[in-house]
From TrEMBL:
It comes from Parascedosporium putredinis. InterPro entries: Ald_DH/histidinol_DH, Ald_DH_N, Aldehyde_DH_dom, Aldehyde_DH_Superfamily. Residues 2-76, 79-160 form the Aldehyde dehydrogenase domain. The keyword Oxidoreductase applies. GO terms for molecular function: succinate-semialdehyde dehydrogenase (NAD+) activity. It comes from the Eukaryota. Keywords: Oxidoreductase. This is Aldehyde dehydrogenase domain-containing protein.
């Protein structure tokens, strides 16, 4: 992992293979057995704490993003943690949603907004009671690692962040 501005090494990141990916899914499946039973209130508390930590560390996260991508710091500083509601096409239509855990979610995130994309994909899955194996873009693994560490600090179950965020430096071999 090199800084695009000067090509100096920022960090060494594991390059996992198919067997590692399989083990990540198996770990996430195992974690799902207990995680799906957590109450929505517990999950909500955890996600709120995680969002608070992301906000509290936004300058550190922006610095990591800037080093990985070469993005201007002020652009890296923008964090989107808001949701939106999409209304029905016709006023007399009703939309029903049933939120129940389905299992392991695979999240593949792009390089251009790594923090926002990881939080949006992983946060929604975790809120619903799912576990996640996340494959960040090869250009931005450090952002994903930082987000995973904050999830752990927020009170995520022990080892959960390693099963929800298996970082890869390149494509599956």
């Amino acid at each position: 992992m090199a800084n695009p501005a000067d090509n100096l090494t920022l960090a060494n990141v594991a390059d996992l293979d198919r067997d590692d990916a399989r083990r990540a899914v198996e770990a996430a499946e195992e974690a799902f057995k207990t995680w799906r039973c957590t109450s929505h209130r517990e999950r909500r508390w955890l996600l709120r704490r995680w969002a608070d930590l992301i906000r509290a560390h936004k300058e550190d996260l922006a610095a990591i993003c800037t080093m990985e991508l070469g993005k201007p710091f002020t652009e890296s500083l923008v964090t989107y943690l808001n949701g939106e509601t999409i209304p029905a096409a016709k006023s007399n239509n009703r939309i029903y949603s049933i939120r129940q855990p389905q299992g392991v979610v695979a999240a593949i995130t792009p390089w251009n907004s790594p923090i926002a994309m990881v939080t949006r994909k992983v946060g929604a899955a975790i809120a619903a009671g799912n576990t996640v194996v996340c494959k960040p873009a090869p250009e931005t693994p450090l952002c994903a690692i930082a987000i995973a560490k904050l999830f752990e600090r927020a009170g995520g179950p022990p080892g959960f962040s390693t099963s929800f965020l298996r970082v890869r430096a390149g494509p599956l071999r």
